[in-house]
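Handout, section B. The chain below has 276 residues.
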Amino acid sequence: MKSLYHHVVRFHIVAVFLSGMAAFMLETAPLHAQQAQAIFILRDTSIQRGAFVRIPLAVSLRNAPARIDSMRLVLRYTPSVVLVDSVRGGGENIIACPAPRFTTQFLSLSEGVMTLACNQIRPIAANNQDTAILCTVDFRVLASAESLATIRIESLTLNATDAELVGMRRSSTIRVFGEPSITTRFTDAIEQNYPNPIANSASGTTFPYTLAAAEEVQFSVYSLRGEEVFRFPAMRQSQGRYFLRYVPEPSLPNGLYSLRMVTRNGAFRQSFMILR
């Protein structure tokens, strides 16, 4: 009985010791950092066709890292109505880069994507509740027949970690009115098509293009060997931005091709692939 009593006492002491160690480890274990939150406040606006509109991206960042070494923003917009012209940072903006680098991608007539990245970020207090301007985005309003464009924040990444987007005001509507203003400026150019490569001949692909002035324009498709495989009828169009739909013949083999646009200012090409 005495030996049993000693075993029970020892078991109790070990249990108390392990329980204390577990509590100590829980108290001293580092807590995971809370996910940063981004509350964007975008406002609706109205603008004349052919003009420029500047959209400030106002945001309140909560639980932000003490030091932000990199930031990446993805924004969606309506490319048939507006084009991203430039992005401005610096000054009092959170993004300190005066001209942040950005790329745009045409997905469809109703959806384009702008991706912005910057490694110069103004310090932000972790519990700061104030609203500041992340950066401003200048859009060129096209001379299209459509009257509404939507701008929407898709994602914000801080130090390679996605911030949680909260709130209901991370999108805005641009209402377009009137005749195009005379300040509109375009160049003759073909943008990258979408989808690319073309995986389904039946659905085809779309090329956005711009014309600097009213003129006749001719489009042709060429193979990698320089052979013309398709020619569109010549068109006379006004200055502005347009979309060309191309549906390749099912008999065309996979490979690299190019769309050639001829205007009074010269010949312009955009390469694409067929990969079924």
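Note. The chain is about 10% helix and 50% strand. Compare this with the example in section A.
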